[in-house]
Amino acid sequence: MHHSDLRAKAPALAAGMAAADHGPDIQLAQTRHRAALVASWDITPGSTILELGCGQGDMTAVLAEAVGPTGRVVATDVAEPSYGAPVTLGESAARISAGPLGSRIDFRFTTDVLDPSVEFPESTFDHVVLAHCSWYFASLAQLRDTLARIRPWARRLWFTEWDLTPASDDQLAHLLAVLIQGQIEAAGSHGQGNVRTPFSREALLRLLPEAGWTADGSRPVDTEDLRDGDWEIAACRDLTAAQERMAALPEPLRQLVLSQTDVLQAVAKPRGNRSLPAYTVTAR
User: How do residues 155-169 score in pLDDT, each as one tens digit?
Assistant: First the structure.
């Protein structure tokens, strides 16, 4: 499917998402971002796809459109269907499943592919996709083990994540918010945020061979219209204001986090903070 074809379908795909009821412009921006990604990948009609970390199905719907009526997307997530706000994962999946793409998608929540009970025959899937979900992993070791586990199941990997290297000064606030959350998680004070193990693109490229994958391409991804920077800054402020979470930190780290939070407060705008860039990596 050509880039222009999939991008043209983004408004209709976005309108079919439950989150569009609460923020249609936000949902459209998220869907357009994912449509541009998938249109740049070599995914043909009739393909079979395993998606890890499907969340509310933003990428799932785009993938289902790309594979067409003869294709199939198995969309997995470790979270419970009740997770998420203002729309839960289960509510969003139910809306998608009831729509025209529903017959192409198999949603599987509370599913960890590291669980021995989760098994697929070799080369079941043409592609495996991880899109903006890898920072949610508890550690790089868990991500490595997951990538190794799925290696026999799929022929090709499509991986997208935020890039820790800012392209401009106005992305520094998003970077700080990400690093602060990552430090708190690394100290053992765990929460339910989207940022648990932030890592660089270079770290991923070092990890892939350990998991049996060979990267064959990497490029930057435009994030100009996404508002994730604002969301992560707000999440970081809420986190550092949570006395119980902060009290659980070793004192030197707590003071370091508080100092970084002071810097974040100084550089972040009330809204309209530019999001970090992103990247996509392909591997075989």
Answer: 999 999 999 999 999
